[in-house]
Amino acid sequence: MGTGAPVFRRSTLIDMNDFFDSRVRTDDVDDTQAWLQAQYGQVDVLADRASIAEHAVGDTAFALRHLIWECRAEIVYEADRFFFATSTTGYSWSIGATSGDYSVEPGIVEPGHELIGRPDRADVQLLAFDASWLTETARTIYGDDDLIVRFEGMGPVSRHMRDYWLATLRWSLTQTPLLAEPLVRAHVRRALASATLEAFPLVGDPRERRASAIEQAAIYRAATSWIDDHASLPVTVDDAAHAVGASTRGLRRAFLANGHLASSPEDYLSAARLSAAHADLLDADAEGISVDEVAVRWGFVDPEAFASAYLHAYRVSPQRTLER
């Protein structure tokens, strides 16, 4: 074992949304092997000197992990979630009779698969998804309540989709300093899931899935346009669904699948009315109208709730906007 100053360092932050941001570095062979075995199952470090560093960030639904292997090792790991990996030169792998190298092409490890990995001084990026969460997300995106997420191959469906997935992963890594914010994290998590489900070969007919996704996107676009045009009227979500030829349940699914700014039609309608109230406050004469009157005009009957929502959206009180 190493002596002197501690060679094992970890810092972890957890909030009430199960968010974590942890960093680990080991600089001793025994410490390295012990930590790797605790995290990744059976590991044999094949070197007299070894270190590893990992930065992991995410929540119970997904995680981004960056590992720097300064050693040669062999890993036998039975996955309990979906993993998607890419690396620099030096990480060969096999799953059953299939083998590859993560530096050549990104690869999948599905729940229940036993991965044999052979990292050799490699820099690895891992994207992990909880299986239940990814399944529910796929069902929402493709409008199929019976869909089970399984993949037909280990790599992307095409070079173009490989590049698309890698670009999405690189973009997500630029957002890691902001992932403690739940809205940012939800956006990044959803973007990664969408890219992954499109880039890797899901079992089933991709034409049917794509048609369903396109249909939901069309419903979403039509509904947001209708809501924008009718926000000043006493309309409901049921009215919006009827106007675009969808059920209320189908409309909510379309928003879950496509709504980056609002995940439900109710939230979108509220945001549209809040935006209209903001425009009215900017144009109004403070001597001729009150904040409460503007709020009621746009359907906000609780002044305190309106003021709170307005402050959250515009970082200033509605009264200050009116009196600018």
UniProtKB/TrEMBL annotation:
The keyword Transcription regulation applies. Residues 221-324 form the HTH araC/xylS-type domain. Signal peptide: none annotated. It holds the Pfam family HTH_18. The keyword Transcription regulation applies. SMART domains: HTH_ARAC. Keywords: DNA-binding, Transcription, Transcription regulation. This is AraC-like DNA-binding protein.
